[in-house]
Structures are given as C-alpha cells and as structure tokens.
C-alpha cells in the first residue's frame, strides 16, 4: 500500500489568509527580532548608524594594531613624548622613546619614523593614541554602566510592581529623592566623594553613573509590568493556577522588558557623554588616561590660542560626536520599530 | 486640585529629609577629622589635637547624633556660639576657597540667577516653535530639518559645543570673551560709586545707569546662553513635535477641521494649547535645571556661577564644599519643582478640575 499525501485544494484557504514567504533568516530570528533588524536597515539614517557602530567596534578591537602601546601591560596610558607644555602640530615626528612602529605605517606612507598623526596636547600626550584607545574606554564604560543600571532598574522596578503596597511606595519615594539633584550634579558629587576613597580610576565615575542612573529604568519597567499584569493571558495563567513566580518570570517579565532592553542598549551614547563630561571636569581617571573627555580637557588651558591648536579639540570631538550620534541614529530608528502605536506600519 | 496640591506639599518634607540623608550619607566617606570642617575653620595639623577635636564635635558618635549635629550645629563650650548647622545656613568651611561655603554661595549664586533670567526665553521659545512647525508640516522639509537637528543636537556634548563656540567666536573672531566682565568694567563695579542693589549684575548696571557695564556683562553671557539654548532646543523639538503630532490625530481636531475652521485656528487654538502640556513640564524642568547651576557650561566659559564652583571644588576633591553646594542646590530644586508642579496643576484642566 502506498502512502497517499493529501491533495486537498488549498486555494480557498490561501485566498482567505494572506500568505507571504517567510525567509530562513526571519524563521531563525523570530518575527520580533526580524522586524528590529529590518528597522535597522531601513532608512539612510539607521544604516549610517549601524555602519558607524560597526566601524567603532572594529576600531576598538584593532586598537593595538592601529596605535601600538608603549607598555603593553598598561595600554590605556597615553604615551608622552617629553614633557614640554606647548602642544605640537599634526605630523610632528616622535623625538624620544616612540612606541613600536605599526606594520602598516611604512606600507601606507613609505616613512620609517612614527609621527604624532593628530599632534600632541599639552605635556606631549599623543592625541591619535588617545582617540583610538578612547574608543575602548567608551565601549567598556558604556557597556558596563548600561548593563548594571539596567539590571538594578529591572530588579527594583519589578519588585516594586510585583509587591505593590508599601514596598512600592518606599521604592518609588527613594526614586523621587534620587531625582532631586540634576544627574550631572549628583554623579559629580558622588564621584568626587568616592575618588579619595577608592583612588583615581574609571571606577568612581562609573559607580556614580550607576548609582544615579537606574531610576528611569525602574520607573519604566514598573509601569510596563503594571500594564502587562492586566492582560488577558496573565489572567488566564492565574485562573489555571500557575505559581506567582512563574507568572512573573515566564509571562510578565519577558513581555514587559523586551522594549526596554533594546532601548537601554542605546543609552550607551548618553552614558558616553556623561562619562566624558566627568573626565572633562577632571573627575575620575588620572591625567593621561586614554579617554575622549580627558583630551578635550587639555584644550581648556589654550583657549586664547585655539585657532592655532584646533586639532586638540577637533579629533577627539569628531570621534566623540560620531560615536554618540551612531547610537542616537540607531535609537531613533528602533524607537519607531518598537513603538506599539506604529506596529504593523513598518 | 486642592487634594493634588496637598499631596504634593506632603512630599516636600520627605524630599528634604531624603536629600539631607543622601548628602549626610556621602559625608560618611570622609575621615572623622575631615568632617570637622563642617563646624570649624581651624582644623589643627598637630596629631595630638585630633582626638580632642573629634570628641568635641562628636565626630565618631552614633549616626543619628551626628546627623542632628549636622542639622542644627553644636554649641561652642567657651563662647556659647553656634557652630555649624545647615538649617541655619552654615554649610561648613570651604578649604579650597578659604571662606565659609555659604559665603561662596552668596558670591556665586547671583551670577547663576542672572544667567538663568537671561537664558529662559532663548532656551524655551525657539525649540517649541520649531517643534510645532515640524509637526504641522509632518514629513515635510521643516520636519526633516528638525529631525536632523535634534539628532545632531543630542549627539554634540555641551562641552564640545562650548569649546567650538569659543574657538570661533573668541579665539578667531574675538567677539564674545569668556568670564564675567572685562577688566576695566570689573574695576568699575568694585568702585564705591557702583551700588549693588540686587547683586544681579545686569540689573544693578541698569539701576546705576551704567549702560556700558550692562552691555559688557551681556556680551560675556551670549556664548553661555547660546550653548544652553542649543542643547535644550533639541529636547524641546523632540517633545513638542511628538506631543503635537499626537494631538493633531485627536478627534476634536478632525471635528474642528470638519466644521470648516481655517487651518490656522485649528492648529493654534485647538491643537497647540493641548499639545503644550508635556512641554510645560519640560520647560519647568529645564529652567529649574538652569537655576541649579549649569556645571559644564559655566566651567567651559569660566563663568563664576554656582555650577563652576561645584566643578572646581570637586576637581580639587574638596568634599565639604561640594556637598555643601549640593545641599543648597537640593533645597532650591525642591522648592522650584514644587512651584513648577503647582503651576502645572493650574495649567492642566484635567488636574485643575479633578
């Protein structure tokens, strides 16, 4: 006996239900993630953003090749070429103790000497080196700060929403109190208090940014959970007797936090600005640490002659602005994709 | 509305308590002897005297005793005078500026207030205008320009914009110098003929009839105001545009159009007032933020306000001064936010009539 495959005519069904081809990629990613991917590659702005982010990731990864460190054990220290105060123009040759010559340099320029590509700042800090390794600092601080604040926000926000009552009241009043001081003021004072205690490093500024950064996530998560909690499927789960913890972790949280997760990752741009602002004000890392705010701070002592020393501002500023803008561009596109009011229109 | 306002008022003592505990908590990171600067200016260098000082100001007492002392001060056993006590306006001794913190605030805060007054209109109005236009011409040229502007605007940090402004308008063109006043005019205002009625420089200059001083003061404030405005335009455009688009989709707007009102009326009389509600909140937050001393702008332009004072003190790790300034800022912000929230209740009919 042969097995017969059903030959029912699906034409009518096909007409009733609009079918479309589902690509392998979409099947692999799932419809929600696929929509996000499409959103990222849809407009010129979002494509620019995605390309820029990729570029910065590569830049950060290739830092040791692009700008070999003087001391491989301490690569975040910007190498100095002497100690003179006067900044040196772009393309000046290294005088004393140049770091290892990158292998591509001779191939590209045909020269044997390593130069200060972007010039030097006061104290002969090499600007090019600072800009390249600053990308690593930006990713490092941005990722750690955003991830930790988000985690804190999720814990506080979901505790608050799930328990409600006085727990909710106490937690939300703490949020109110932490919101009184403007965020830069708050992070500035906490970083200034912590620096003498734990020493100059990335830590004081990062801890301060985390301590005063989680409140907005907590509020958003709390609001989202409160609204998801009222959905029918949660009620259905409750009716069939699912445990509270399972309802929270399996039904409510995944539906409530997904948009926040994506949007939070884009706060890396904002965190980078705040961090750069703190180091611009001279808080946190020691002088000569490779980070963009620090190089910009070098320009402050040369304000009257900035038209001569414009390169101290120009290069770190362009890099910082492009970095932040790439996250904003992608964020703008994603906000449209994730906005439930616009769902189905994109 | 009364219940709303009463509720809001009840929040004030809580916020005051919370912020004071927060600041007090940060003070605990200091060594006990360093906290002596809260009460007295002469902290001895001699090691033998340290235990005496700690005992006298009760710097290793239980937290609640220290907190109380910090609030109301302690009595000097010899002269009987009060020492310290933030409730009486004594925020301690500022080591790096060699004066009581409250004196520093008295000198710096009027400058910040002066800047705030002049910055309010440029900070708020253009952004709202652009936002409304962008929403009315949705997806049109103005909308695209506004969108690009708001993305680029939020991507350029204040200090980068400030440095670029200095590069062009000061180093290159020599138009707008940083600082508060030119040297010649600084001598004018410190002379005895110049009366300080309000300690707001621009207003005093006008009251003294010194129009040249007024113009010079204004010339020094243009770049800070420009910097403050540009950064808030981006935010205002985004919020106003979003709110306006939302409102234009409402049914009463369709009704207004359907009954044949001219588009001008529909937009400016029916839609815009309702779209302004979130913008009013934002405006409140922004202006209150200016009042708290705009740390980076004041620092970049070397403007002697309360924000740059906080930045200088924290760069020098002068914790007592920084926390004193922060406490003062907290007080101002709590009061100012209360005012904003009450005004908001008056503006929003949904709250007013509730």
**Largest beta-sheet characterization of chain A:** 2 strands, antiparallel
Tally the beta strands of chain B.
4
As residue ranges, the low-confidence spans of chain B are none
How would you state the average pLDDT of chain A, rounded? 81
CATH topology category name of chain A: MetI-like fold
Instruction: Strand order, main sheet of chain A: write it out.
Output: 1-2
The portion of residues forming beta strands of chain B comes to under 5%
Sum up the structure in keywords.
heterodimer, A: 346 residues, mainly alpha, MetI-like fold, 16 helices, B: mainly alpha, two-stranded antiparallel sheet, 15 helices, 4 strands, 70% helix
Protein described:
The complex is a heterodimer of chains A (346) and B (354). With 346 residues, chain A is an all-alpha fold. Chain A has one domain (45-342): MetI-like fold (Orthogonal Bundle), CATH 1.10.3720.10. Chain A is 64% helix and 1% strand. Chain A contains 16 helices and 2 strands. Chain A has helices spanning 11-16, 24-29, 31-40, 44-61, 63-66, 103-109, 127-163, 165-178, 183-198, 203-211, 215-229, 232-239, 244-265, 268-280, 292-298, 310-338, and strands spanning 92-93, 115-116. In chain A, strands 1-2 form a two-stranded antiparallel sheet. In chain A, helix 3 runs antiparallel to helix 16 (310-338) and helix 14 (268-280) packs parallel to helix 15 (292-298). In chain A, 39% of the residues are buried. The model of chain A has no long low-confidence stretch (mean pLDDT 81). Chain B is mainly α and 354 residues long. Helices cover 70% and strands 2% of the residues of chain B. Chain B contains 15 helices and 4 strands. A two-stranded antiparallel sheet of chain B has the order 1-2. In chain B, helix 5 (141-155) packs across helix 9 (211-248). The longest helix of chain B is centred in the middle third of the chain and has 38 residues, at 211-248. Chain B is globular, with a radius of gyration of 25 Å. The mean pLDDT of chain B is 83. Chains A and B meet through helix 8, helix 9, helix 14 and helix 16 of A and helix 1, helix 5, helix 6, helix 12 and helix 13 of B.
